[in-house]
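Apologies for my clumsy wording, but can you show me some protein sequence, whichever is easiest, together with the matching C-alpha cells, please?
=====
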Amino acid sequence: MKNALPLDDLALFLKVAETGSLSAASAQTGISVPTMGRRMTKLEQALGRRLFLRGPSGYALTSEGRELVERAIPLRSAAAGIDRWRSEGRSVARVRITAGTWTSWFVARNIRRIWSEEASWAPDLLASNLPLDLARRQADIGIRNKRPTQDWLAGRRTARIENAEYGVSPDVTGYIALAPDRASTPTALWVQANRADRVVMLASDTRVAVDLALEGIGRVVLPCFAGDAVLGLQRVSPKIEELSHDEWLVTHHEARHDPPVRAALNALTELLTDASLRPLPE
C-alpha cells in the first residue's frame, strides 16, 4: 500500500504553483526557500511525476503539474471550511429522539420545560411507531415501551403508562381501528384482537382516529396521558390492564457518554418522570 501524501505538502505545492517561484511562496508561508525546494522535490519523487520546469524565471508547471493543481484545489476549499468551523467555536449538537406518536406529541407540547435556544444541544424529534435502530445510530435516544434486552443498549425507566378507551360519551359503542397495514402498535393490535366485530371505521393513523372519535363515530384506545388531554373526549372504560407497560429511555451504551446526548437524557428524564404532567388514572 502506497503511503498517503502529506496534505501540507500539497498545500505548499499549490502556493508555489500560484506564485510561480519558491521565494514568493516562502515569503507568504514563512518556510525557507531551501526547505520549500526540498519538499517540492520530495513531492515529485513520491508521485513519480515531474511537476515543475525549473529555470531562472522561476517554477513553471508541467502538464502533470497543472493536472495536480486541478485535483488539489478542492483541498484548499476543504481546509478553509475547517478553519471557519474552528473559528466559529462549538456549534449546537443535534440529538435525534425517536418515540411513538403520542409520546412525541407529549414531548413536543412540553419541550420548553426542558430546552431553550441557549442549550448546547437541540432536539430532533422523530415520531415513529417503528423503532429506529439505535445500534446503527439512526437515532440517539429512543423512548420505548419495554426495557432493552440488547447488551449494547442502556435503559432508564421513566413512568408507568396506562391505556383506556375514549369517546365523546359512553353511549358511543363502536370502535375506530387502524387499517390492517398500519396496525403495528400494541393498542392497534389490541383493538384488532378484542373489538374487531365492533369496528365501524378504519383510519390511516391515530391522529385521524382521534378526529373521527371527536365526531362521535366511535371509540379509540389511547394512552391515558394523551386521551385525558384531548378536549371533547372522555374516558369511557377502565384502564386496559393488558396494555399497561413501563416506559424506558433507551440509548446506545457509547452514545450516552456523549455530553449532548447525556444532557438530552437528563432533560427527558426530568420531563417524563414528572407525575404531575402524566398522572395515572384512578
